[in-house]
Design brief:
- With 365 residues, the protein is α/β, with parallel strands linked by helices.
- It has two domains: 165 residues, Glycogen Phosphorylase B (Rossmann fold, 3-Layer(aba) Sandwich), CATH 3.40.50.2000; 165 residues, Rossmann fold (3-Layer(aba) Sandwich), CATH 3.40.50.2000.
- It has 14 helices and eleven strands.
- The strands form two sheets. It has a six-stranded parallel sheet, sandwiched between helices.
- α2 packs across α11, α7 packs across α8 and α7 packs across α14.
- It is elongated and about 70 Å long.
Length: 365
């Protein structure tokens, strides 16, 4: 109900605003052959969403190599976009309506002609694009169902069943973009870290956006104990943010002093660019469905990914299938035993994950 109310108010506001001002032009005047010179791209949500958007961003950059491109991004993704050659300017916005005036003011400086909304919060994204002076707006409308805001877009709604990456690419195809390259990429340079080739490095990303998506710490402990017992060449590397400090403590407290000698924790100790260098050196990363999975895929680091609430065919690895092992528990959470429903991935044993790891690192053993 709240969303419908916001959309209704947004539509009334935009109807009045465009009647007397603004630059928005009618849909039937849109020409895909036009060479736009100033473009604003919206990707204001999570890290994984930004990574899913990178193939579409590359396609836009290739289509308009001389355009001034502004990115509207979340503050939390600053390390991935601040110094990127793909963007001429970056405006940071965490989708708070109270900040929309400042965002619009910053966007107007670059006089954008076209807004490409890949992932952002409606209806504030469309409002800001109209107020910034955009002539046309294209937007990925999730589910392809009318929301009430599509009247301001330069294209009709289209339903799509498939991976998020392909959906974003299909959107920018409306502009005449070439969309055959579906590989994600890291949009900034980052410092390389020397790798010890005598080590087999297995990364653990234990946290996720919610407990439901996490493999239990006890399972990670079992896996770590099995790996370190294989010999001193095995090294377990923990990654994560400040929010995962509790998981780190739980994990380390369950390891013996001898086992800890083969564990390195970078949790809450790195910047995003530094983390990229660490992840590139991993032989394999074990992770749930969370941002670092998509960073690893873009880095072409091998992964064992564990899915439960999300469906891998929509949000799992979409490139280099030989590098990735996907373990999916399509659980009906409501009908599971309570102890399992809190963390359905607990159904997956550490032995099963270890087998997947061994299948990926076999060529280097």
């Amino acid at each position: 109900m709240a969303k419908k109310w916001k959309t209704a108010v947004a539509n009334k506001f935009l109807q009045a605003y465009t009647l007397f001002g603004g630059q928005l032009k009618p849909r039937n005047s849109f020409d895909s052959k036009r060479i736009f010179t100033s473009i604003v791209i919206y990707s204001t949500t999570a890290l994984g969403d930004l990574m899913f958007n990178t193939p579409a961003i590359r396609a836009v950059k290739n289509r308009y190599p001389h355009a001034f491109i502004t990115l509207v991004s979340s503050h939390k993704n600053k390390g991935l976009v601040a110094k990127s050659a793909y963007f001429d300017d970056v405006v940071y916005w965490d989708e708070k309506v109270r900040d929309i005036t400042g965002v619009v003011k910053a966007l107007r400086v670059n006089k954008p002609e076209l807004a490409i909304i890949l992932h952002s919060k409606p209806p504030y994204d469309v409002i800001s694009a109209v107020l910034a002076g955009c002539e046309y707006i294209i937007k990925d409308v999730y589910g392809g169902k009318p929301s009430g805001i599509e009247r301001w877009l330069a294209h009709p709604l289209a339903s799509f069943e498939g991976h998020l990456i392909q959906r974003k690419l299909n959107l920018v195809k409306l502009l005449g973009c070439e969309i055959s390259n579906t590989d994600m990429f890291i949009p900034v340079d980052f410092p390389p870290i020397a790798k010890d080739n005598d080590k087999i490095t297995v990364g653990f990303q234990m946290g996720a956006s919610e407990k439901l998506r996490c493999w239990p710490v006890a399972k990670f402990v079992e896996l770590a104990k099995s790996l370190t017992a294989l010999g001193p060449q095995y090294e377990v590397v923990l990654i994560g943010t400040e929010k995962e400090r509790g998981l780190e403590e739980e994990f380390l407290s369950a390891m013996s002093q001898a086992e800890k000698q083969q564990v390195i924790s970078y949790i809450a100790k790195t910047s995003l660019p530094e983390l990229l260098g660490i992840m590139r050196n991993m032989n394999v990363l074990v992770t749930g469905d969370t941002g670092p999975l998509h960073l690893a895929v873009a880095l072409k680091t091998k992964t064992v990914s564990l899915f439960v609430t999300a469906v891998p065919k929509y949000t799992g690895p979409y490139q280099d299938p030989d590098l990735h092992q996907i373990m999916w528990v399509p659980a009906d959470v409501e009908n599971l035993d309570k102890t399992i429903s809190e963390q359905p991935l607990s159904i997956i044993s550490s032995e099963e994950v270890q087998q997947r790891i061994e299948s990926l690192i076999k060529p280097i053993l």
